[in-house]
Design goal:
The chain has 34 helices and 17 strands. The protein has 895 residues and is an alpha+beta fold. A nine-stranded mixed beta sheet has the order 8-7-15-14-13-9-12-11-10. A four-stranded antiparallel beta sheet has the order 3-4-6-5. Strand 5 and strand 6 form a beta hairpin.
Length: 895
C-alpha cells in the first residue's frame, strides 16, 4: 500500500519521503520491480481522481465553465448592448435629434467620412459583434477588414459623385478642403476617402479608378458572403440556358401535337383524287383499269412498271403547277418514326377523302393504308417489298414463324413521360449537413476531412477521410448517433467506398426526384448499349444513368418487401428490351402467379406463349425451357460452336434460321415453390447452370427472401442480385450476403449487386407507370403479324411438364393410377380438400380413419405426389394446396 502514494503526497511529506526513498534503495531487487508495477497503478489512480473531481463539480459550475469556454459572459453581453446603444445614437445624430453633443460628433464624422457617415454605425456594430462572437479568429479578422474596405469604397464613390460641386467650392474653405466640405455640406467623401480618391484619379483617371473600385467591391462581397461571383454567374447562365432549352422542347412538343391533331382532323388522302383537268383524267382512267380483274393478276415486273408510271404522272402534275395529289404508300408499318412525323400532308385543297378510306394516325396505332386489291396484291408480290420469314424449329418438329420484318418499328420514346428537373441548388443544405457530420464525429473524438459530395435522385453521399489511426469500425458504429444528429429517417454508411480511400455516408434528400424510364431510354448510355437485352436500371448515387446487360449477369434474382418496387423493376426490364429488340431477336416466357402484373403484355409478338398465370402450369413452362436449352446445345454441337452468338453467325452465312435470345421472367417464386417445389427448383437450377451460352436468361422476383424459397442451389447459380427494402438484416443477408437492404427507403431505392461488383451499389430504380406500359404494349401489339405466336408452343410446354405437374393440372401422371395407390386414397383426398384448415397432419389422418402411422404416412406422401398437399415443413402439418374446383376436375380426369 505504501508504494501507491501519489506524487502530491510525496511533496507534502517532504523529508519523510526522502528518508523512505533512502531506505527503499537498500531493499532487494524484488521490491524495486514491485515499485515499477505500482507506477502503472499510480497513473490509473490519478485518472480516477480526476474523474471523481469532475463528478464533484456542481451543475452551475459546469454551466459557468461551458459559457466561459464558448466566450459568453455577462460582461461581454453588456458590452454588446452598450455598443448597440452607441451605434443607434450615432445614426440618429446624423439627423440632428440627439442635441449639441450629437451634432458635434456628427459634424466630425461627416468631415472624416462624408456621406458614408450614415453607414458608419452599422459597420462598427457588425465588426465588433463578429470579432467577439468568433474569438478574434483569423476568418473574423479578414471579414472585418473586408467590411471596412467596402465602407471605404462606398465613401470614395460618394466623393466621386460630388467631385464637381466640391471643385467649385474648394477655394472657399480654410484648412483641409475635404474635411471642411463634408462637415459643412454633409456630403462628399470626407477627409480620408476624398484624399484617396483624388490620388487615384490623378494616377489612373476616372475610368481607371471606377474599374479598380468595382473590382475591389466584387472581391469584398465574395469574401463576406463566401460565394464565388464567377460561379454564381456561371450557374445563373446555365439555369437560363436550361430554361431556354426546356421552353424550346416544350414548344416543339406542342407543335408536334398540333401537327398530329391536324392530321387526325383533316386526314391524309392516299386514294383516288377527283379529276382536275386533263392530267387528272388519266389518273381516273388508270384507277378504273385497276378495278378490272386483269389487274389482280399483275406480275412483279408489271408492278414495277406501274410504279414508274406513277412517278412520271406525279412529275407531270408538279410541272403543271398542281399540288402533288397522289402518293403510293406500300405499308404504314414501313414508315419510320421520323418519316411519319415529317411527312407532308398531300391532300389537295378542296378535295376531301372518300368515306371508305381511313385516316392513318402517326403514333397511336399502326394500320395498313387502304388500297385496291389488285394494286395491293401486285405490290406484295414485288421482290423488294416481300416479307422475309424465318422459321425456328421447336421440339417435336414444331416450327414457329418469326417475322424478320423490315416494317417493324421500335416504340417511340415519346410514348413515355419525361421526368422533371431537380429542385434547384442544394449546396447550402449540403454544406450544413457536412458541417453537422463533421461536428458530430468530432464530439466522439474522430476528426475527419470532408472530401466530396455526390447528390443522387433520392440520397446524397457525403465522402470523408478520417485522420490516421481511426478505425473504420468506429465510424460505422456511430450510425444511430449520426441519424439522431441529422434527424434523418435512415442513413447508410459505406466504409470504405470501392475504389476510393474514403468513407461514404448516405443521407436521404429532403426532396426526392423520381427517375422516369423516358430519361434513361433517351440517354447516351442506353443508346450506345449494343446488346439487345440491355436494360435501364436507374440512376446511381451521383445521378448518372446505370445500364446493364442481362447477358453478362447472366441471371438476376430480385427480392424485396411488398410495395418496394419489384414489379416496377420487372416492367422496367421488359420495357427496356422492347425498346431495343425486334420480336425475331428476343423472346419472352413470362410466369405471373399474381395474374395481374404481367398480363398487360399478352398479345405482343415477343411472347413465346401467353403469360402463364397458373402456378401448376409454371413448372411445365420451366421444363419446356430446359428442353429448349438442351435442343439448342445439340444444334451448337452439330455446328461446332460454343454459344448462341457463334451459331447465329454461322446461320446467317448458311441461310439457317437465327435463334432469338429468350428471357424467362418469374414474378413470384415463393408461390411456385409452395405449389411444386421439387420440379420448379430443379428446372431453375438447371437453367441457371447451363442456359447462359444458349442465350436463355432467368429473371426471378420474390417478396419472401427466406432460405426455403431462395434455396442454396438457386442462390449459388444466380450471382447477380437486386435487393429492395426488406424487413430485417437477416433477409438482407439472404439476398445479398450482407446487411444494408433493411436501411433502404423504398419506392425503387435498391442495392444493385451484379456479377463483377465488389460491393452492392445504391441505385434509384427507374419508374414506369401502368399507362405508359399500356401505350407501348398497344403500339407493339398493333404490329403483330400472323405466325408471331404459335399455339403449339403452349402444348409443347404442357408436354414438357413433369409427371407430378401433369397430375396437378388434371393430366394422368405417373403416380396417378399406380398399382400401389391406397384403396382409401380418394376418400382421404376428399376429406383433406374439404377441410376448413390450411394444413393437415399424419396424426389427423390416423385419428379420423383409424390408421397406423406407416399407412397414414404413405397416404400423405401420395397426396403430396398428386399435388393435393405441399411438402413437409418439419414438425408442422402439410399445407393444402389444391382447391375444391381443381379436385373436382382431378376426379373427372382420373381413370
Amino acid at each position: 500500500m505504501a508504494t501507491r502514494t501519489t506524487d502530491k503526497d510525496r511533496k507534502k511529506t517532504g523529508g519523510k519521503s526522502s528518508g523512505k526513498s533512502t531506505a527503499a534503495g537498500k531493499n532487494t531487487s524484488k521490491k524495486t520491480a514491485a515499485k515499477k508495477t505500482s507506477s502503472k497503478k499510480t497513473a490509473s489512480a490519478r485518472s480516477a481522481a480526476k474523474k471523481s473531481k469532475a463528478e464533484d463539480i456542481s451543475i452551475p459550475e459546469r454551466r459557468a465553465r461551458r459559457s466561459a469556454d464558448e466566450g459568453y459572459s455577462p460582461a461581454s453581453e453588456a458590452g454588446i448592448l452598450i455598443l448597440l446603444a452607441v451605434c443607434i445614437l450615432l445614426f440618429l445624430a446624423n439627423f440632428g435629434i440627439i442635441g449639441a453633443a450629437g451634432s458635434a460628433v456628427a459634424s466630425f464624422l461627416f468631415g472624416v467620412f462624408g456621406s458614408a457617415s450614415f453607414i458608419f454605425p452599422f459597420a462598427l456594430f457588425f465588426t465588433v459583434v463578429m470579432l467577439v462572437a468568433n474569438h478574434f479568429n483569423y476568418e473574423s479578422v479578414i471579414k472585418s477588414a473586408m467590411i471596412w474596405l467596402t465602407f471605404l469604397i462606398i465613401a470614395m464613390f460618394f466623393a466621386m459623385a460630388w467631385s464637381g460641386d466640391f471643385e467649385t467650392r474648394r477655394q472657399s474653405f480654410a484648412g483641409d478642403p475635404y474635411f471642411r466640405y463634408g462637415m459643412e455640406y454633409r456630403r462628399g467623401g470626407g477627409l480620408i476617402p476624398g484624399h484617396i480618391y483624388a490620388f487615384m484619379s490623378d494616377m489612373l483617371g476616372q475610368f481607371g479608378t471606377v474599374i479598380i473600385l468595382v473590382t475591389l467591391s466584387v472581391i469584398c462581397i465574395g469574401v463576406l458572403t463566401g460565394r464565388s461571383i464567377i460561379r454564381l454567374i456561371t450557374e445563373s447562365s446555365k439555369e437560363a440556358a436550361d430554361s431556354l432549352v426546356d421552353n424550346i422542347e416544350i414548344r416543339q412538343e406542342e407543335m408536334r401535337r398540333d401537327r398530329r391533331q391536324r392530321r387526325r382532323s383533316e386526314g391524309v388522302h392516299y386514294g383516288r383524287p377527283k379529276p382536275v383537268g386533263d392530267t387528272i383524267s388519266r389518273l381516273e382512267l388508270r384507277d378504273e383499269e385497276e378495278e378490272s380483274d386483269e389487274m389482280k393478276e399483275l406480275t412483279a415486273s408489271e408492278a414495277e412498271d406501274l410504279d414508274r408510271m406513277e412517278q412520271r404522272l406525279e412529275e407531270r402534275i408538279l410541272s403543271s403547277g398542281q399540288e402533288n395529289t397522289h402518293e403510293v404508300i406500300p405499308d404504314a408499318g414501313a414508315m419510320t418514326t421520323d418519316e411519319s412525323e415529317d411527312m407532308e400532308e398531300t391532300a389537295a385543297p378542296g378535295i376531301e377523302p372518300e368515306p371508305d378510306e381511313e385516316i392513318v394516325p402517326v403514333y397511336e396505332e399502326v394500320k395498313t393504308v387502304p388500297m385496291r386489291e389488285g394494286r395491293k396484291a401486285a405490290i406484295q408480290e414485288t421482290p423488294s417489298r416481300k416479307r422475309k420469314v424465318a422459321s425456328s424449329t421447336l421440339p417435336d418438329g414444331m416450327t414457329v414463324e418469326d417475322s424478320t420484318v423490315s416494317d417493324y418499328r421500335l416504340p417511340d420514346p415519346r410514348l413515355l413521360h419525361p421526368g422533371k428537373k431537380g429542385a434547384g441548388n442544394a449546396k447550402k443544405e449540403q454544406a450544413e449537413i457536412s458541417q453537422k457530420l463533421k461536428n458530430t464525429l468530432q464530439s466522439f473524438g474522430i476528426n475527419v476531412t470532408m472530401t466530396d459530395v455526390s447528390q443522387g435522385p433520392t440520397v446524397t453521399r457525403y465522402e470523408m477521410l478520417p485522420e490516421a489511426g481511426v478505425k473504420v469500425s468506429r465510424i460505422v458504429s456511430l450510425t444511430d448517433d449520426l441519424k439522431l444528429a441529422l434527424a434523418a429517417e435512415s442513413i447508410r454508411i459505406e466504409a470504405p467506398i470501392p475504389g476510393k480511400s474514403a468513407i461514404g455516408i448516405e443521407v436521404p434528400n429532403a426532396q426526392t426526384v423520381p427517375v422516369m424510364l423516358h430519361d434513361l431510354i433517351v440517354s447516351d448510355e442506353f443508346r450506345n448499349a449494343r446488346s439487345k437485352i440491355s436494360f435501364a436500371v436507374g440512376k446511381d448515387i451521383a445521378g448518372k444513368p446505370v445500364v446493364f446487360d442481362i447477358a453478362k449477369m447472366p441471371h438476376v434474382l430480385i427480392a424485396g418487401a411488398t410495395g418496394a418496387g419489384k414489379s416496377v423493376c420487372i416492367n422496367t426490364i421488359i420495357m427496356s428490351i422492347l425498346y431495343k429488340a425486334r420480336p425475331d431477336e428476343v423472346k419472352f416466357v413470362m410466369i405471373d402467379p399474381k395474374v395481374v402484373e404481367l398480363s398487360i403484355y399478352n398479345g405482343i409478338p415477343h411472347l413465346m406463349t401467353p403469360v402463364v398465370t397458373d402456378p401448376q402450369k409454371a413448372a411445365g413452362a420451366l421444363n419446356w425451357s430446359v428442353v429448349e436449352m438442351d435442343r439448342r446445345y445439340n444444334e451448337f454441337a452439330t455446328h461446332s460452336v460454343r454459344d448462341l452468338k457463334g451459331y447465329n453467325a454461322i446461320a446467317e452465312k448458311e441461310g439457317l434460321p437465327v435463334m432469338p435470345q429468350i428471357v424467362i421472367i418469374v414474378d413470384e417464386l415463393a408461390d411456385l415453390m409452395m405449389a411444386a417445389k421439387n420440379d420448379v427448383e430443379t428446372a431453375i437450377v438447371r437453367l441457371a447452370q447451363k442456359a447462359r451460352a444458349a442465350g436463355m436468361h432467368l429473371i426471378i422476383a420474390t417478396q419472401r427472401p427466406s432460405v426455403d424459397v431462395i434455396t442454396g442451389l438457386i442462390k449459388a447459380n444466380m450471382p447477380s442480385r437486386v435487393a429492395f427494402t426488406v424487413t430485417s438484416g437477416v433477409d438482407s443477408r439472404t439476398i445479398l450476403d450482407t446487411v444494408g437492404a433493411e436501411k433502404l427507403l423504398g419506392k425503387g431505392d435498391m442495392l444493385f449487386y451484379p456479377i463483377g461488383y465488389t460491393k452492392p451499389a445504391r441505385v434509384q430504380g427507374a419508374f414506369v407507370s401502368d399507362e405508359e406500359v399500356e401505350e407501348v404494349a398497344s403500339f407493339i401489339r398493333a404490329q403483330k403479324k400472323d405466325g408471331d405466336e404459335d399455339p403449339s408452343i403452349a402444348e409443347a410446354m404442357n408436354a414438357a411438364a413433369s409427371p407430378g405437374d401433369q397430375s396437378k393440372s388434371g393430366s394422368m401422371g405417373a403416380s396417378s393410377g399406380g398399382s400401389d395407390e391406397d384403396e382409401i386414397f380418394m376418400q382421404v383426398a376428399e376429406y383433406v380438400v374439404g377441410l376448413d384448415k390450411e394444413t393437415v397432419s399424419i396424426g389427423l389422418l390416423q385419428r379420423q380413419f383409424r390408421l397406423g402411422f406407416n399407412r397414414a404416412a404413405r397416404i400423405m406422401d401420395q397426396l403430396t405426389d398428386e399435388g393435393i398437399v405441399g411438402e413437409e415443413m418439419g414438425t408442422k402439418g402439410r399445407r393444402i394446396v389444391m382447391t375444391q374446383e381443381k379436385f373436382e376436375q382431378y376426379k373427372e380426369e382420373k381413370p
